[in-house]
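Tokens in:
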């Protein structure tokens, strides 16, 4: 929520009508926000335009991004090959990494600063809570809230087997077929060893039309890793699993690339992933959430979807 909104509005406590001194109370409480807006004759639906400090067009501006971000993508686009992906997947399946609870995983992840992200300076735990809170505020189902809460926990990979950040964070794309021009900074693929490969450089590559995204190997990173970790260890439904697995696949869910690989199931999942995206992306400009206050709610939510509590990572 942009602080500016509250500077212009007199914010009232929704319950007893007292004026609030600290507007951060209002941000946590949708009723307070509604009351404040009503007071200014602004309907609640119009409030969404205030949801971001940044204008929506100001997110994901990779051409204007810092050298840190551009260098990250150059390295990632050069190193994500079919051979690397096969190695990473075999490695994942044949090793045990750690056993811990979801909350412990969130705390462990907190020291990572994501080099691929031009839009947030918040810690990972703050980003996870922000995403979940935005979903909860909109009254979305509990499975979607828990999905928001954990969706980036795959970045833990950085502390296990990663070779850098290039095989953990950033947008994803298929390997084994031509790199689409709608992937960000597409010119940085020229030095990828697969770029001129006789099969991997063709439109369908090692796949075929309608083969289904389950059969397409996406670049290895936090999405793919977390999907495999939670698939059999949680009660999250298919839509939530798709949100986790494909949330960084912007060329597909945002730009319309690689749609020829889809089957009917993927077409349904695409809708879910697109519904999730604004919570992941635009919540990045919301106020920083207060962890200790939110912890009891989310611990209960985690227990509901991870009844085993401690899981294999
Ligand atoms: O920089 C971001 C970040 O790493 C996100 O976690 C990922 O999901 C996005 O796709 C990426 O662009
Ligand atoms: Fe992510
Ligand atoms: Fe995220």
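Residues out:
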């Amino acid at each position: 929520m942009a602080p500016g909104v509250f500077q212009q509005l007199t914010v009232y406590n929704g319950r007893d009508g007292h004026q609030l001194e600290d507007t951060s109370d209002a941000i946590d409480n949708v009723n307070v926000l509604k009351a404040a807006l009503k007071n200014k004759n602004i309907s609640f639906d119009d409030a969404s335009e205030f949801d971001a400090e940044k204008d929506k067009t100001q997110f994901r501006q990779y051409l204007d991004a810092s050298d840190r971000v551009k260098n990250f993508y150059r390295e990632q686009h050069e190193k994500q090959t079919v051979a690397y992906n096969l190695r990473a997947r075999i490695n994942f399946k044949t090793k045990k990494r750690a056993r811990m609870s979801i909350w412990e995983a969130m705390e462990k992840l907190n020291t990572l600063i994501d080099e691929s992200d031009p839009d947030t300076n918040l810690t990972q735990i703050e980003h996870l809570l922000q995403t979940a809170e935005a979903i909860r505020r909109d009254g979305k189902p509990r499975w979607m809230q828990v999905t928001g809460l954990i969706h980036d926990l795959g970045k833990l990979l950085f502390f296990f087997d990663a070779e850098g950040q290039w095989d953990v964070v950033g947008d994803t794309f298929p390997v084994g077929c031509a790199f689409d021009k709608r992937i960000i900074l597409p010119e940085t693929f020229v030095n990828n060893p697969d770029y001129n490969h006789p099969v991997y450089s063709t439109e369908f590559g090692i796949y075929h039309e309608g083969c289904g995204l389950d059969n397409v190997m996406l670049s290895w990173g936090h999405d793919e890793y977390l999907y495999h970790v939670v698939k059999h260890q949680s009660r999250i439904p298919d839509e939530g699993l798709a949100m986790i697995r494909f949330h960084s696949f912007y060329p597909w869910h945002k730009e319309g690339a690689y749609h020829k690989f889809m089957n009917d199931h993927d077409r349904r999942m695409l809708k879910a992933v697109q519904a999730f995206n604004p919570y992941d992306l635009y919540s990045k400009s919301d106020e920083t959430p207060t962890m200790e206050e939110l912890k009891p709610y989310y611990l209960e939510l985690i227990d509901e979807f991870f009844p085993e509590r401690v899981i294999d990572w």
